[in-house]
Prior knowledge:
This protein is of the alpha+beta class. It contains two helices and six strands, in the order αββββαββ. It has helices spanning 2-40, 100-106, and strands at 46-47, 53-58, 70-79, 84-94, 114-119, 139-149. β3 (70-79) and β4 form a beta hairpin. Mean pLDDT is 89; it is low at 4-11.
Amino acid sequence: MAILFLLLIVITSISSCKKEDEEAKQAAIDHALIEQYVADNQLDGKFTLSGLYYVIEEAGNGEFPYPNAIVKVTYKGYLLDGSVFDEGHISASPLTNFIPGWVEGIQLIDEGGRIKLIIPSNLAYGPQSSEDIPQYSVLIFDVTLHAFEK
């Protein structure tokens, strides 16, 4: 029985390491793609520790939202090749309902601000795909934060 338990631990460890290796490889791919996009488009922004790249295009004039704030935004989302997959206006939604890249990025601007977010796949949809977004896609969003409620 002890040997079976030990074997289970070894198998779990190996599969866990493999998943971490794949995630690290994808993160490196995403980072290289983002750096190339930034260079090609002569953007002047910053990377966060999570790998999110952002450019504050207009400073707002209010407070910064909290992770659980109800936000009012307009946005445009597109892929690195420029193809638009979504755009619109959100009149009232908790920030926590969005992908991690939005949650992190929108907290970097204050009310009335505009930001460009270049989001690595692990902070977006990762291995999930949709009709307009292939799996492991780096996503770009232009977001204006109009208002938020605490």
